[in-house]
Amino acid sequence: MNVTPVLLPGNMCDARLWTRPLREVMSGAVDADLTQDDSIADMATRTLAAVDGPLLLVGFSMGAIVAVEMWAQQRRRICGLVLLGYNAGADLFERAAHRPLQQAEVRSGGLERVLVEELKPNYLGAANRSDAALLELLRDMGLALGPDVFVRQSKALRLRRDRRPALAKMRLPVLYGCGIEDTLCPPNWHHDWAAATPGSRLVMLAGAGHMLPLEQPDATASMIDQWIHDNREALTP
Q1: What's the pTM?
Q2: Residue 126: how many CB atoms within 10 A of its CB?
C-alpha cells in the first residue's frame, strides 16, 4: 500500500493519543500538527502541505473534522478516511455559546480546571472515569499544549463548517468508529453519517466513550487493521 498514513489528534490531545497497537498497524504514520491554526480549513491546509503524495487519514474527534476538510480541499490525494468519534455537523448552539466563556477562563489561568472538571472526564465510558492513569494522561496532554492552543482549537471548532452535505460525495473507503458510551458524538450520529456515506463501514466499540483510541486501544487498532485489509486494493493509489 503505497500511501502515507496521517494521524490527526483530537482537541487538546497530542501524539500520546495514538498507542502502540495503532502505531504498529499504521506503520510509517506521520503525526499532524493541529496546534498552530485557529480554523479547521487552515489546519487542513497546513497538514496537506506538510506531507507529500497520497494519504490515508486517521482522525479522532477534531482530527476527524480536519481529515474531512483535507478531503474537501484535495480529494485526489486522499485514498481513505478513518473517522473516530466524528461530528459532521457545525458546532451545536449550546457548545458554541459556551466556548467563549471557556476561552476567557483559560486565558485567565483556568486551563487545568476546564480540562479536569469540564472536558475530559465527561468523555469517558463509565468504567474508565475512575482510571487515574488515563485521567492523568488526558490532563497532561492538555496542559502540555497550553492555553494558547486551547483558545485556537476552541475557536476553530466553534466556527467550523457543516460538512453533512459532503458525506454523500465521499466516493472512497471510509471507516467510522464510535464508542458505544460516547455522549459527545453519540452512536446515533455515527449511524447517520454512515448511512449518508456510500459504501462506508461503521464499527461500534464496547467499553468506550468518546476517547476510544485510549479507552479501547487494541480494539481500535484491530478495527482499523481489518478495514485496511478489506480495502487494500481501493486504498492503493
Answers
A1: 0.97
A2: 9
